[in-house]
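Reviewers of the previous submission asked for a worked example of the structure-prediction workflow described in the proposal, so we include one complete record here. The input consisted solely of the amino acid sequence. No template or homolog information was supplied to the procedure at any stage.
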Amino acid sequence: MIDITNESGSPADEEGLVGLATFALDWLRIHPSSELSIILVDEQTMEAYHEKFMGLPGPTDVLSFPMDEMRAPGDDEDPPSGLLGDIVLCPAVTARQAAENGRTPDGEAEYLLIHGLLHLLGHDHAEPEEKRVMFGLNDEIIAAWDDHREQTGQR
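From that input alone, the workflow returned the following structure tokens.
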């Protein structure tokens, strides 16, 4: 189950974000009964979360709060089920940084949603090899999502 709440005061493609999250969880072989919460917040709220939970000043684009420390299964493992956690996105920040990353505001939100989801599944990017794996997987999922939308006429 995927729950999305828009507390940001900004319009967002909530249906598209839920569709992408559903697609990504399936692509990563996470059990469909797993629970994920996506929360869209304003800059002031994101700044408060960023300072409280990361000890860093200013608003950021995405934060992830894992619950059951789930991991994507190996090829010979059953899909895990449980509480993935919360992904908090700030549409104002993602829209502002989209152009510098060569994406539309919606594309930036999608990219960061997957980034947050991968953090919930234990991925990190502190070390060069971790970063290569995580960002490569992020790009793969987004490319597969784009292909899926093109094939189903959702563009």
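The CA atoms of residues 47 and 59 lie 4 Å apart. We consider this example representative of the routine output the project will generate in years two and three.
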